[in-house]
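Q: Glycosyltransferase, please. Structure only.
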Amino acid sequence: MVTVSLCMIVKNEEEVLDRCLGSVADLVDEIVIVDTGSKDRTKEIAERYSARIHDYEWIDDFAAARNYSFSLATQEYILWLDADDRLLERDRELFRELKLTLDPAVDSVAMEYHLAFDSNGKTAAMARRNRLVRRACGFKWHNPIHEYLEVDGNVYLTHIAVTHDRRGDHSPRNLAIFRRMLEREGELTGRNVLYYANELADSKMYREAAETYERFLEQPGQYYEDYVLACSKLAECRHYLGDMEGKLRSLVRIMAYDLPRADHCCAIGYCYQDRGDVRKAIFWYELALTLELPVHHFGVVNLIAWTWLPHLQLCVCYGLLGDLERAYEHNEKALEFLPDDPNLLANRAKLTEALGLGGDSA
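A: Structure for Glycosyltransferase:
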């Protein structure tokens, strides 16, 4: 069985830290807490779990703080979490089994990161993260903000999930850090341009965000997934700016870097549906249904595009064409994922009546 150090950086996390540590404390062999200036009960809560607590002067650099936390680990593997993360019971059991069976030649274990949930509590958006890494590899964090862990070697993919329940809006803090970086350095380069654009978009500064995404896309030599994300986020900005043609161009631009995913196909389909070109919309929604969820993709994916969303939109599109039988079929498919959704149930009732089917469909 391998041994694990849990390494965390925290500040004023009294609302969520107990839940996080309670979900994982019995699965790890030590807990290292690096506190960057808490004024609440964060340290007191950490002490209940026999954590080793270290103070660290905050210097506007998340990567530096995380690297410091990793330097304090003593066990074979390092697990990292944020205070608003936790492991649900299913994932606790999978993690327990992983500790017993993990090949010590594995350098990193990639886990799912569940970020958003539908009305039934099912995961609606997820990413993957290199979450458990072999300490001897000496992997380092990079980037002062939106830090990332650079990993290579033998990576093992699992379906163990860390569940995220974000508290608060971090965009003002993050924007302030980026602007201080701009004051010091004069410009941003590399991934920091993308991350700055993301913060601008999250702050609804869509025009400036769009300009920044365009600037990122002009940079050579970036990771292809970053280009895909930039195009997708640029399309969102164009949407909010009322530039629907620009939105469509941004989505189609994704295919210069990678094959389209189901979420991209649904977004393109919606562009055509919005302009009344229903048959082209149907093409893209039906294409989405043929695409598999990418296994090795580490960016955020909207899982609804692989489940109920294309079926719902096809129901609408076929309804507009007067093909009620196909509309009904796709509404039923959507209901398999969201059986209690009031809109889908209302669609069922209307289509059942229009088609003269009688009674409720199972």
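A: Brief note, in case it's useful. The chain has a mean pLDDT of 94.
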